[in-house]
Amino acid sequence: MNSSKAARSVSRQQKVGDALRQDTRNRLLEAAAAEFPVHGYAATTVTRLAAAAGVSVQTLYLAWGSKRALLRAYMERAIAGDVAFGALTEGLSLAKAIDTAWVIASPESYDLLVRRLGYTLAEFRVWIENTLSAAILASSK
């Protein structure tokens, strides 16, 4: 086999591998979108996420590195989708909106409000929704 043909074969294999990796990441994001809102971050296990995506726990870690990184990616996708339907607060970039949402909806906020202050999961969800809307979305006045 000449080097040109070998380069094309590797390139084709690499493209297939890249597509499969992206498909796995997307399936895990879809699983995150189904699991995090229903069960919350703390109660959503990596085993549950992997099973929902049809992959192993090891594959989840290979694709995202951690459950926290998957949560961040899920939030980025959700906010980018929401922004398509409503404008951001004036002067707030999409990147800053994502950072703001990350701080508000972080596992640390959950720990503080639910575990330490006794919020129910329903109360926490309402707080997140109201606080995020006020912080990142333009007023509809």
List the helices and strands and how they pair.
Layout: H1 3-43, H2 46-53, H3 57-64, H4 67-83, H5 94-104, H6 107-116, H7 121-136
Helix pairs in contact: 1-2, 1-3, 1-4, 4-5, 5-7
Can you offer a commentary on this structure?
The structure is a single chain. Helix 5 (94-104) runs antiparallel to helix 7. It contains seven helices and no strands. The relative contact order is 0.10. Helices cover 79% and strands 0% of the residues. The radius of gyration is 19 Å and the shape is flat. The termini are far apart. The protein folds into two domains: 1-65; 86-141, no CATH class. With 141 residues, the chain is mainly α.
Can you describe this structure in just a few lines?
The protein is mostly helical and 141 residues long.
What amount of the residues lies in strands? under 5%
Radius of gyration: 19 Å
Give the helix level as a range of percent.
Answer: over 70%
Q: Globular, elongated, flat, extended or rod-shaped: what is the shape?
A: flat
Order of helices and strands: HHHHHHH
Average pLDDT level: 86
The low-pLDDT segments are none
Distance between the termini: 68 Å
Broad structural category: mainly alpha
Domain count:
2
